[in-house]
Amino acid sequence: MITLAGHLIACLFWGLLIALTLTGICILIARSYTNKGVNPLICIVLSIFILYQSVLAVGAMYAKGLVQDIHDTVENVAETAGGMLSSNEISRQLKEHFPDMPQNIQKNIADTDTANSITSQADMIAGQYISQLNGYILKRLYWALGFMAIGTILLIIFPYGGKNRKSKGGNSSIPAWNKYDVDF
């Protein structure tokens, strides 16, 4: 449970760092096209959208690492067993190391006969999960780049020029007590 919380905090931290960096790039691009300031509302919304995508992408990267850890453990257990342990025993050991491992993987390993077929099945399953996670990360990257493009265009179209401080009455730079040249 502590490891999960650590991974969650790390995903949020790295996602925030990536989001701030990408938002900063959008701001720099927008400011290079206009000499005005950037709209803070657009920046905040853009940061939130990019943060969401970057946290999901970083989480998928952590998941890839977990898949690789499970794969390595399956191979190590199968090699050290060398045919001495049954597939049910290997499945039990894996469940001890990774209690949150999906049930379908544990069932597939328990149904397999030899250590060689267990490692080949582990290669196949890990390859499928990693392939799906790579596709997921690529989708998050495309969404983040799309948000960056739209956000940069909006920052260029709607720059922040500050509030118009001129009043309808004319010389607003003259203090009110001296406006009518009255001595107190």
Question: Would you mind describing this structure in some detail?
Answer:
This protein is an all-alpha fold and 184 residues long. The chain contains five helices and no strands. The longest helix is centred in the C-terminal third of the chain and has 43 residues, at 115-157. It is elongated.
Task: Break the fold down into its secondary structure elements and pairings.
Layout: H1 2-33, H2 40-81, H3 87-97, H4 103-111, H5 115-157
Could you give a short account of the major beta sheet?
A: none
Helix content: over 70%
**Gross morphology:** elongated
Mean pLDDT: 79
**Estimated radius of gyration:** 29 Å
Briefly summarize what is shown.
The protein has helices at 2-33, 40-81, 87-97, 103-111, 115-157. With 184 residues, the chain is an all-alpha fold.
Which features characterize this protein?
184 residues, single chain, elongated, mainly alpha
